[in-house]
Amino acid sequence: MKYIKYIHLVFAILFMVFASVQFNDPDGSLWIAAYSSAALASVISFAGKMPKKVLVGLIGVTVFALVMMMPNTYASLVNFDPNLPHDPVITHTSNVQTENFKEIGGVGMILISLGLQYLTLPKVESEVV
């Protein structure tokens, strides 16, 4: 069980790779910031220095982002058209609909990482007064 903290290091490397491939994305600066923040949080958790309140705050922000993305993702799912052409202004690899799925997947991975960090926080013994 003591080696579980290394999963944070794996997530940190993964998020740094994700951030490094966002430069050609129209909203890349947003994703670079999100993935870099997740990588930093993972490194801090790996070091065992993550404050619980900060981690809970990051989880709250991530859940809020997921909730805000749900309407567009749901609309893309309901109105999915596999023959929709690629829009080079939005992304060079996919159309608007699949971009929503990719973005919510990225935020979901951040939430999974933060959740694992929360579950592996060191237990603090409370003092009895």
In a few lines, what is going on in this structure?
The protein has 129 residues and is mostly helical. The chain has helices spanning 6-20, 28-46, 52-78, 96-119.
Structure description:
The structure is a single chain. The protein is mainly α and 129 residues long. The chain has one domain. The chain contains four helices and no strands. The protein has helices spanning 6-20, 28-46, 52-78, 96-119. The two termini are 31 Å apart.
Core attributes:
single chain, 129 residues, mainly alpha, 0% strand
Q: What's the story with the biggest beta sheet?
A: none
What is the overall shape? elongated
Q: Mean pLDDT, rounded to whole units? A: 85
Total separate domains? 1
Count every beta strand, where a strand is a DSSP E run of 2 or more residues: 0
Whole-Å distance between the termini? Answer: 31 Å
Contiguous helical run count: 4
Tell me the series of helices and strands, N- to C-terminal.
HHHH
Question: Which percent range fits the helix content?
Answer: 55-70%
Regions with pLDDT < 50 over 5+ consecutive residues? none
Cα-atom radius of gyration: 17 Å
The class by helix and strand makeup works out as mainly alpha
Q: How would the blueprint of this fold be written?
A:
Layout: H1 6-20, H2 28-46, H3 52-78, H4 96-119
Helix pairs in contact: 1-2, 2-4, 3-4
